[in-house]
Design a protein that fits this description.
alpha+beta; 3-stranded antiparallel beta sheet
Length: 69
Amino acid sequence: MYKVDTDVEYPKMRTKYPFDDMHVGDSILFEDRPDADKARVAALRFVRAHDLEWKFSLRRVDDGWRLWR
C-alpha cells in the first residue's frame, strides 16, 4: 500500500540557465554559436515544460551571440 503525501513542494526544473529570473528584454551573452544554440533549445524546452507563452530570440552581436527573452 502507498501513502499519499500532501503539501510537498514540487522540485524546480534543473537548468544551468537563469530563464525563470529573466524578464522581457533581458538577455544572456554567449561567446560561441554552439553554446548559444544549446541555450536556445533549453529555453524552448523550459517554455514548453512550464506551459508559458514566452518567446526567445537569438541574434549575432559584436562580442558573440545573445539570447533575449
